[in-house]
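Order emerges. For instance:

***
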Amino acid sequence: AVMGQTLVELFYDVVSPYSWLGFEVLCRYQRVWNIDLRFRPAFLAGIMQATGNKPPAMLPKRAEYLQKDIKRMAKYYQVPVQVSGDDFKRILGVGTLGAMRFITAIDMTEPQYVESLSREFWLRFWSQHEDISQPANILAAAKQAGLSSELAQKTLEMVSSPAVKNRLKETTEEAIKHGAFGMPAVVAHFNGEPHLFFGSDRLELLSSVIGEKWLGPVPS
C-alpha cells in the first residue's frame, strides 16, 4: 500500500447480488478515495455454515422484499443486477464454488484480472442467468474478461488443486475471524485496527470512519 492509504478488503462471492453492488461502488471509489482496495474472493456458503446464518430468501416475506429491494438498488447503484423469481432456487442448486475457486486461482497467479473476471461472473450469473458452474461457461467468462485461452485452460486445471482449495478456505476463515457472517464483508484497516462493515449499504458509514468524502454510489 502507498503511504497513508487505507487498506480496504472486500470479501465477496459472486453468488451474492449485494456483493456485486458493493464491489462496483468500491471499484469506482478506488479512484476517488485514498484507499488500497484488495479483492478477497471467499465462499459465502462456508461463512453461513460456520456462523449458523441462513440465506435471507428462506424467509418468504423477506424473499419478496429482496426482489423489490435489489431492483431498486440496481437502479440507484447503476449495476445491471436482474432478479427473477427462481433465482433463489438457482443459487441453492447451482452454486458458485467452481467460479470462486477459479477467481482464487487467478488471484494467486494473475491478480490483475480479478476485477474484470469477477464482474464477468456476476454479469453472467445475475444478468444473463447463466449456469456458471459449467466449465465451458467458466472458460467463456475468462475469455470475455481478457484471459488468453491458454491461461484460462491452465487456470481451470488449477481449480481442483489443494493449493487453490486451501487458499479459498483460508480467505473464508479470515473473513470469519474479522466477524463476517454474510457478504459483502468489507474490512477497513484504519488507525491500526480492522473495522468490519456488512452489506453494500454501509459504504457511506465506511467513508466517515476512514475520513473520506461520500459522493453517492456513482461518484462522477
Observations:
- The two ends are 25 Å apart (CA to CA).
- The chain has one domain: 6-210.
- The chain has ten helices and four strands.
